[in-house]
Write a structure and sequence with these properties.
Layout (H helix, E strand, L loop, with lengths): L1 H15 L5 H6 L13 H9 L2 E2 L8 H23 L7 H10 L4 H28 L8 H22 L5 H15 L5 H9 L6 H33 L7 E3 L2 E3 L14 E2 H26 L22 H29 L1 H4 L11 H21 L13 H13 L22
Antiparallel strand pairs: 1-4, 2-3
Helix pairs in contact: 4-6, 4-11, 5-6, 6-7, 6-11, 6-14, 7-10, 8-9, 12-14
Bound molecules: protoporphyrin IX containing FE (HEM).
C-alpha cells in the first residue's frame, strides 16, 4: 500500500508544486542562482544546482554567509530561551537561574546565544572590512552598503536590548551607565534616554520595552533588511575581481559580477555548497567551544540601591566602549563613533570607479584605523573588570538617590533584593 502511495504522492507534488517555492531554499543558502519558474519543481531544483559562481568567489566571501548563519543560530537559541524566560522584574532573574541550572542544556543554549551575539558583531565587521577594502561599496552596490550598515545597527540594537534581560547587577548597572551617557548627547539625548527608560530610573518599564524590542520589533526589521540585502546581491551580483594589472597599479573593474557569468567559474554544487557546509560546521564548533569554555556568569540580582563593586562586560561593543573611555577618554569614544558614522557616508563621497588601495589612500587609512581600532579595543576591553573609581558615585550620593526614590511614584523594581556580600560575587551556576 505505502509502496504505491509514496511514488504517487511524489509525482503529485512534482506536478503541482510551484518552482517559486525553491525561493525558500535560496533564502537559506541551499541554492544560489535564479530559479526557473517555467520548469517543474524538481527540474528547476536540478537546474539551480548546476549554477556556476564566478571564479573569484573565494573564502573571503564566506564572511557574509557566516554572519547569516550566526543570525540564524541567534534566532533558534533565542526562541528556546524565550520558552523559559519571563520578562518581569520579579521573575526575570529567577528564570535565568532556572535556565542555567535546571533546564536541560539551558546553560549551553544561553551561552551559545551570548557568544553568537558577540561573534556576529565581530564577523559582520570583518565582512564589512572585506567589502570596504575591495571597494565593493562603490556604485552600483552603494545601496547594499547602506542596507548592510542598517543590519549592523540592528545587530547592535539586539545586543543592547538583550543586555538588560538577565536583570542582574552587571546588566542593570551597565545599562544604567549607557542610558546616562545617552542622556548627555546634546539636543535630543535626554528625551531619547527617557523614552528608552520609560521611568525615572531603569525599572520594570525599561525591561518590558527592551524585551518587546528584542523579541518582536527587531526580528521583523532584520527579516526585511536581510531579504533586501540578499535581493540586491542577486540583482547586482558580487563585485567583480581585480583583473587588470595596469603597469603594477591594480584597478578594480566595475560592473555586474556573478549573476552575469552562468558559464565557466565554480560549480555551485557540490563545490560551493560543500565549502559553505564546512564553514558552517567550523563556525558552530568555534561558537560552541567559546560557550563551553567561557560561560557568562550570573551576577547578583539587580539592585537599584546598591552599586556593584565591579562590572563584568559580556558583549563586544561594551568592551570596546570601556577600553576607548579608559585609554582615550570620552572624546576618544566620540571621535571613534564619528569615524564609524563617516564610514556610513563613504559611498556618498567615494564614487570614483578606481578600486585599488593606492587610489583611495584617505578612505583606506581611515577604514584601517576603524577596523584595527575596534579589534584592539575589544581585546583590551575584555580585560577591564571594574568601574573606574572616579566614575563611581559616592555612597552618600547613592543614599540620597535611594531616599529620593522612596518619595517618587514607585517605579516597578520588583522585590528589593538582599544587599550582596562582596565576597560572594563571581560565578553562580
Ligand atoms: C547581519 C548582517 C549581514 C549579513 C547576514 C550579510 C550577508 C551577506 C552575504 C551572504 C553576502 C554575499 C557574500 C559576501 O560577499 O560575503 C553579502 C554581501 C555584501 N554585503 Fe553583507 N551582510 C551583513 C552585513 C553587512 C554589512 C555590515 C555591510 C557593510 C556595511 C554589508 C555590505 C555588503 C555588500 C556591499 C555586499 C556585496 C559585496 C560584493 O559585491 O562583493 N553587509 N552580505
Amino acid at each position: 500500500m505505502i509502496k504505491k502511495w509514496l511514488p504517487q504522492f511524489w509525482e503529485d507534488l512534482r506536478t503541482s508544486a510551484d518552482a517559486g517555492l525553491l525561493g525558500v531554499a535560496r533564502f537559506v543558502g541551499l541554492l544560489y542562482g535564479p530559479i526557473d519558474r517555467n520548469l517543474r519543481i524538481d527540474e528547476a531544483w536540478r537546474k539551480a544546482l548546476r549554477y556556476r559562481l564566478a571564479e573569484h568567489v573565494g573564502w573571503r566571501h564566506a564572511l557574509g554567509g557566516i554572519t547569516y548563519l550566526l543570525l540564524m543560530v541567534l534566532v533558534v537559541t533565542g526562541v528556546l530561551l524565550a520558552f523559559y524566560y519571563r520578562p518581569s522584574v520579579d521573575e526575570a532573574y529567577p528564570s535565568i537561574q532556572h535556565i542555567v541550572s535546571e533546564v536541560s542544556f539551558g546553560w549551553l543554549i544561553r551561552d551559545l546565544h551570548l557568544w553568537c551575539a558577540n561573534l556576529i558583531v565581530i564577523v559582520a565587521l570583518a565582512h564589512m572590512a572585506r567589502v570596504f577594502f575591495e571597494a565593493a561599496y562603490k556604485p552600483p552596490r552603494e545601496m547594499n552598503w547602506i542596507v548592510g550598515l542598517a543590519l549592523l545597527g540592528v545587530a547592535l540594537a539586539f545586543g543592547a536590548t538583550g543586555y538588560l534581560l538577565p536583570w542582574d547587577q552587571w546588566a542593570y548597572w551597565t545599562v544604567t551607565e549607557v542610558l546616562d551617557a545617552v542622556a548627555l548627547i546634546p539636543l535630543f539625548g535626554g528625551l531619547l534616554a527617557d523614552a528608552i527608560k520609560g521611568d525615572v530610573i531603569a525599572s520594570g518599564a525599561t525591561l518590558s520595552r527592551f524585551f518587546a524590542l528584542h523579541v518582536i520589533v527587531l526580528p521583523w526589521i532584520t527579516l526585511a533588511l536581510v531579504s533586501y540585502h540578499f535581493t540586491l546581491i542577486r540583482r547586482r551580483g558580487l563585485a567583480p575581481p581585480m583583473t587588470v594589472d595596469d603597469g603594477g597599479r591594480k584597478w578594480w573593474l566595475s560592473g555586474v559580477g556573478v549573476g552575469e557569468q552562468p558559464h565557466g567559474g565554480r560549480p555551485f554544487f557540490p563545490n560551493h555548497l560543500l565549502r559553505s557546509f564546512g564553514v558552517a560546521v567550523l563556525t558552530l564548533a568555534v561558537a560552541l567551544t567559546l560557550a563551553v569554555l567561557f560561560p557568562r556568569p550570573v551576577g547578583e540580582p539587580a539592585n537599584p540601591y546598591v552599586l556593584p563593586n565591579e562590572l563584568v562586560s559580556t558583549w563586544a561593543p561594551v568592551d570596546v566602549s570601556l577600553a576607548l573611555i579608559r585609554f582615550t577618554g570620552i572624546w576618544g569614544l566620540a571621535l571613534f563613533s564619528l569615524l564609524g558614522v563617516g564610514l556610513i557616508l563613504l559611498p556618498v563621497f567615494d564614487r570614483r570607479p578606481e578600486r585599488g588601495l593606492r587610489q583611495r589612500p584617505v578612505a583606506v587609512a581611515l577604514g584601517t584605523v576603524f577596523f584595527v581600532g575596534f579589534l584592539a579595543a575589544w581585546l583590551a576591553g575584555r580585560q577591564i573588570r571594574s568601574v573606574p573609581p572616579s566614575e563611581r558615585p559616592q555612597p552618600e550620593v547613592v543614599g540620597e538617590q535611594a531616599e529620593q526614590l522612596q518619595e517618587l511614584p514607585l517605579p516597578d523594581l520588583g522585590p528589593t533584593p538582599p544587599v550582596p556580600n562582596p565576597e560572594d560575587s563571581g560565578r553562580r551556576r
